[in-house]
Write a structure and sequence with these properties.
The protein has about 240 residues and is of the alpha/beta class. Helix content is about 35%, strand content about 30%.
Length: about 240
Amino acid sequence: MDLLPAIDLKQGCCVRLKQGDMNQSDIYNTNPADQAKIFATQGTKWIHVVDLDGAFAGQSVNIEAVQGILSACPGIQIELGGGIRTFQTIEKWLDAGVTRVILGTIALKNPAFVKEACKEFENRVAVGIDAKNGFVAVEGWAETSDMADIELAKRFEDCGVSALIYTDISKDGILQGANIEATVRLASQISIPVIISGGISSLDDIKACAQHKIIQGIITGRALYERKFTVAEALSVLKNA
């Protein structure tokens, strides 16, 4: 099971939101590249990066910050989401050194685009499903659709999606535990590897996730920034699970 420390970018800074609300953001580092280095020195193999401004704008915004992270962490696998909605943008980021891109809003609005992207960029496209009460949220979590999370996930079976990142927005950024039940429910109905995101608050949460081998990875952010545990400690738990 992979651990993916999270770096969410807002106006060039490393922040965490509460339940997806851009008006409730806490700044943890004004130098995202420095934060990425911290995660790298603690042994992570992956870093999960989201351009929050880009998610709302519909195009990449925090370009310099992402480039800084890539330069600071050679050899670390970076996944990037937020405002990636064209083939040109996908190609630009993959050529720049991003390991895989995450498609979110466009996955709901144009699933054919995602399927074509998976063919064009084999094994380098992930889908992000952000849910409120089981329904998909889009546009940087500002809008909730009438599409059920599992219905959207099933649209991408057998088309080459490398991973599905499932976030329960109600849990995100408030350190009250992850929605493991919903994640396992989703993962059990599809063959795409599923990564859990939102609400990880302690090493006990890491252990609880690790008990479900159907979950392929864990994204955690605020718990790391508030020193509930370190990347190294979480990796040790996963190694011994």
